[in-house]
Recover the amino acids of this structure.
């Protein structure tokens, strides 16, 4: 099966958004061994879309479209493909019902163009949209499979993961099956990791090993190809064990997990609770924690003490500490972590103070970060790191580094 | 001039990274009126790349390539295009010098494959690489312009902005110049906005009007085409005024701004300060505020009161309120907003409590959100909204909705 992804939307060609949908779909398809040879982006224009489809049909037998399923005149993916394939569009009753329900619930009058969203190809397999209105669809005709997905990632991603992947797996021969496993590392650079494993990566063909660095993390993607499920698994296990012998201390998890999630799992399994005091990260650590459902078992809350006044008046940092050492100091970080832990009555308190940039602060350069970690019945610790990058990457890396300290402490 | 961007790299087709290069280049080209009709992504494979070039040549006269200029065997963009066009590759002395310099400075022995990076098309205009090794190049042949840029955004972006754009402008007729303006709206759905402006959008040809919805917002992109700078500006102003007559109450800003930024500007110009109490949004509002540099003038800090205990013990919400109405209630939202404002001694306090999902809470369905807004010397208000989408989009939209309430109150 040769895949091609066609994203439809002039906003992509105008550079208003990046084609993250193609990234998401490609990643999922790579995991089940479907080769993607092309991504195409085309605007909201029927004629150009039709030509892109013809080109795709000449080289691919799985064509996945994203975008253009909405209610407006610009949304013409469905109509164009239906016309090109000579299939009828019919109203899907389930989708129409949930669209009407959506408006009824909100007491908003439904404009007529919204009915268009419930149109699907006749005889297509319909993919439900659990987070929006327009359903997706799959149809195989002349040995080519056409899948239409909505454009907004918040609708496309759950639809593709929950329904689209199943539809593709049903059409796939088991002989082509591959299996991927991603090993995630923190606290080691890409070149160091690659250097440590160099001989090994080069001689390895099944599974293949592909390193990738992003946002201070490094991942290794192992990809094994074998008709037998068991044998694929065994090949991956064997290679993973060899890698772990050399760099296991930097490993934190598999596949799509995050350091924050792994930290949370450990806190929860230890029956502990966490609270947070954030200055330079401004809420990012807590935002990432609470983006995971069900964290209320171990996450209590925290303080964003952005100004010195809040550090002193709400968090109870000693004014002398701020006066003597400044807010960007190990002393301030330690008091912040310890005080938030006591204030919120938790087992662990963590704090972040530092310079996100672009300007320096208290004579410290952007990227300077102090992370305080306070465990009940243990002496409070403070770590200094100098993080590379701009304001955004400094904050992101500070958050990961903090989670990494808690994770290391707990395991 | 019709543009097409061809990104070369198997990592894109495996979904390891998104094609942000195409976004960047498209945005720059849109600003000078060059239409981009297609993006293509193709892997590190000479045969497939050659076919992609042939397709591009049949429909575009400006073809921009990113990626595949590096030293490894996988990097074959230059060789493939040179072969296809029948042009010679020659060493560029300046580039070769700076590559040698790079290794000398770091006391690293230069491996022979690095010399390959200094190869350029004979007679091409060379684009210097100020942040890396491989130079870019531009060549016009048979009325088609080919531009080759490196893949890493940190090299591609400065090269394209500083040298690539100039090379394109030199080839562009002033007659084709366009100018775009994006109008941003909140509190109105895409279909309603489009319905309200329908007659107007349909009859409008210069500027064109393109609506786009994402994450609860709607934007209209106006694009005017005219040789004169002044006349382009006048066309945009005229159309904007007509749009504002009908939907001006939902407008919040231009181009790349955000509701949070516009809210911040208004708070700052009113010499006011803000504090925040977050439950379901878990720090997201504060994270978005503090991602803007310089907010310490008006943002003090806040509390993430994720558990009921923190709402009561730290934020001082009345236990009876929680008992009688629950934490997902207008009463709790109002106390949270008012109490955080007093605790942090600010002019404005805002609070978020609700159900992010996936599970219901206190009998309220996911997406139910109460937003409390407390201004000093005004009665505290509470707003209920039922937001669509998954956990992530509910949180994102709640944050925007809160900022929108403060913004409306202040203007």
């Amino acid at each position: 099966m040769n895949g091609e992804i066609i994203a439809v939307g002039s906003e992509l060609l105008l550079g208003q958004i990046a084609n993250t949908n193609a990234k998401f779909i490609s990643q999922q398809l790579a995991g089940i061994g479907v080769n993607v040879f092309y991504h195409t982006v085309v605007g909201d224009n029927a004629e150009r879309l039709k030509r892109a489809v013809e080109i795709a049909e000449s080289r691919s037998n799985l064509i996945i479209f994203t975008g253009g399923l909405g209610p407006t005149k610009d949304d013409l993916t469905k109509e164009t493909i239906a016309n090109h394939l000579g299939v009828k569009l019919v109203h899907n009753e389930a989708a129409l019902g949930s669209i009407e329900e959506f408006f009824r619930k909100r007491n908003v009058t439904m404009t007529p163009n919204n009915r268009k969203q419930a149109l699907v190809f006749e005889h297509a397999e319909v993919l439900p949209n659990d987070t929006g209105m327009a359903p997706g669809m799959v149809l195989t005709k002349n040995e080519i499979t056409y899948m239409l997905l909505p454009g907004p990632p918040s609708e496309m991603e759950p639809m593709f993961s929950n329904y689209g992947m199943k539809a593709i797996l049903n059409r796939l021969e088991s002989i082509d099956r591959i299996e991927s496993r991603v090993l995630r590392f923190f606290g080691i650079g890409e070149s160091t990791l690659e250097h440590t494993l160099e001989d090994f990566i080069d001689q390895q063909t099944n599974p293949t090993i592909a390193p990738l660095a992003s946002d201070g993390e490094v991942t290794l993607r192992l990809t094994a190809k074998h008709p037998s499920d068991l044998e694929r698994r065994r090949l991956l296990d064997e290679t993973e064990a060899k890698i772990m012998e050399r760099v296991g201390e930097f490993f934190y998890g598999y596949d799509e997990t995050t350091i924050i999630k792994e930290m949370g799992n450990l806190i929860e399994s230890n029956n502990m609770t966490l609270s947070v005091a954030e200055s330079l990260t401004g809420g990012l650590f807590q935002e990432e924690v609470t983006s995971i459902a069900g964290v209320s078992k171990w996450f209590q809350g925290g303080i964003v003490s952005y100004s010195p006044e809040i550090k002193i008046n709400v968090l109870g940092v000693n004014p002398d500490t701020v006066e003597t050492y400044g807010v960007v100091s190990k002393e301030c970080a330690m008091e912040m972590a310890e005080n938030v832990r006591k204030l919120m009555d938790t087992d662990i308190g963590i704090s972040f103070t530092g310079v996100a940039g672009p300007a320096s602060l208290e004579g410290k350069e952007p990227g300077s970060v102090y992370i305080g970690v306070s465990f009940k019945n243990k002496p409070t610790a403070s770590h200094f790191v100098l993080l590379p990058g701009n304001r955004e990457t400094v904050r992101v890396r500070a958050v990961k580094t903090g989670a990494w300290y808690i994770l290391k402490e707990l395991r």
The radius of gyration of chain A is 26 Å. Chain A has a mean pLDDT of 93. Chain A touches chain B through 96 residues (CB under 8 Å).
